[in-house]
């Protein structure tokens, strides 16, 4: 890409043009993810890429995300940087993209990178003898930032205390290992893998978040050269699964405090399956739906599953929990 004096992008790529500016949050995990995407772009297209950290209000705020309007707090400044051409593309964890707020029409997710592990893992202090959730004593304190996890843990072990825990992965692990607060915490396996953290934990049999394990690469629709370049990263099966999950999420119109879980995958027989669940905060009540379709019918599948969940009472469960 070359940048003209008026700030409008040209159409040349490689050594003869300018570098691609790739924006991301400034957390260690976000930077690792962005550098991975940048390396892949350099490899595929021989394009110089500069990773640009953008501090977001969600990262600056240490309280509950609901106080800032939800997970959109991780995206506002990055969206603005894209729209004002301070950066050319952006990398997001798709699970952090709100489902009840429309994306700016000028922007498009041109690529969904091949999905990583979607599982949630429960971790224990390094000095603890506890090896699995079954070993935790009644009343043990578990930390997580996700209402979806809280609800499903409530179904499995209603005797546990689950409290809100935010922070980057290393800070959460530090608080866990200090042994003064939490008996266990729950993190995404993909986060540990991307950071290269090898740690014993128990993979939980719970439904993941919509978009779990997926990195989405965002860019401006008005820059077709950039869109075409970014599409080199797109994984077909991941996009098909994302279409089903995100359509379901949009149909439910849940907010960041809504305990909604959803997971699509290509089954061995080639069919696309979608499982969706909506819970009360403590997990004592829930509705569930699962259906199958051909992989090119992801949006239709998501529409059907969200409608089925709503027919079963999902709207009442969602509306019980304030934004």
For the secondary structure, the number of strands is 13
CATH superfamily of the largest domain: Periplasmic binding protein-like II
Give the H and E element order.
EHEHHEEEEHEHEHEEHHEEEHH
| Structural class category | alpha/beta
Spatial arrangement of strands, main beta sheet: 2-1-3-10-4
Main sheet? 5 strands, mixed
Q: Estimate the mean pLDDT confidence.
A: 89
Share of residues in strands: 15-25%
**For the record, what CATH class of the largest domain applies?**
Alpha Beta
Tally the helices: 10
The domain count comes to 3
Q: What is the annotated CATH architecture of the largest domain?
A: 3-Layer(aba) Sandwich
- Write down the overall geometry: globular
Q: First CA to last CA: what distance?
A: 42 Å
Describe the structure.
It is a single chain. 31% of the residues lie in helices and 21% in strands. With 323 residues, the chain is an alpha/beta fold. It folds into three domains: 14-113 and 212-234, 3-Layer(aba) Sandwich (D-Maltodextrin-Binding Protein, domain 2), CATH 3.40.190.10; 120-203, Periplasmic binding protein-like II (D-Maltodextrin-Binding Protein, domain 2), CATH 3.40.190; 241-319, Double Stranded RNA Binding Domain (2-Layer Sandwich), CATH 3.30.160.40. A five-stranded mixed sheet has the order 2-1-3-10-4, with helices on both faces. The protein has a five-stranded mixed sheet with strand order 7-6-8-5-9, with helices on both faces. A hairpin with a 6-residue loop joins strand 12 (272-279) and strand 13 (286-293). The longest helix has 18 residues, at 28-45. The model is unreliable at 1-16 and 64-70 (pLDDT under 50).
């Amino acid at each position: 890409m070359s940048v003209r004096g008026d700030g409008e992008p040209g159409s040349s790529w490689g050594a003869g043009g300018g570098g691609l500016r790739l924006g991301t949050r400034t957390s260690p995990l976000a930077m690792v993810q962005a550098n991975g995407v940048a390396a892949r772009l350099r490899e595929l297209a021989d394009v110089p890429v500069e990773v640009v950290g953008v501090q977001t209000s969600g990262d600056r705020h240490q309280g509950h995300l609901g106080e800032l309007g939800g997970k959109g707090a991780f995206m506002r400044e990055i969206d603005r940087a894209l729209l004002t051409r301070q950066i050319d593309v952006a990398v997001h964890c798709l699970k952090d993209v709100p489902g009840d707020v429309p994306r700016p029409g000028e922007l498009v997710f041109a690529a969904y990178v091949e999905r990583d592990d979607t599982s949630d893992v429960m971790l224990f202090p390094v000095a603890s003898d506890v090896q699995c959730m079954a070993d935790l004593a009644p009343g043990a304190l578990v930390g997580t930032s996700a209402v979806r996890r809280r609800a499903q843990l409530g179904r499995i072990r209603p005797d546990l205390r689950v409290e809100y825990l935010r922070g980057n992965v290393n800070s959460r692990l530090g608080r866990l290992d200090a042994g003064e607060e939490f008996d266990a915490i729950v993190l995404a396996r993909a986060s540990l893998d991307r950071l290269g953290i090898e740690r014993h934990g128990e993979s939980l049999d719970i439904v993941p978040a919509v978009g779990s394990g997926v990195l989405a690469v965002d860019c401006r629709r008005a820059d077709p050269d950039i869109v075409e370049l970014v599409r080199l990263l797109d994984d077909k099966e991941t996009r098909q699964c994302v279409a089903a999950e995100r359509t379901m999420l949009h149909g439910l119109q849940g907010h960041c405090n809504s305990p909604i879980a959803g997971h699509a995958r290509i089954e061995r027989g080639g069919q696309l399956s979608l499982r969706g669940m909506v819970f009360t905060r403590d997990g004592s009540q829930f509705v569930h739906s699962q259906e199958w379709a051909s992989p090119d019918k992801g949006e239709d599948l998501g529409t059907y599953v969200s409608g089925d969940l709503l027919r079963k009472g999902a709207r009442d469960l969602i509306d019980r929990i304030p934004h």
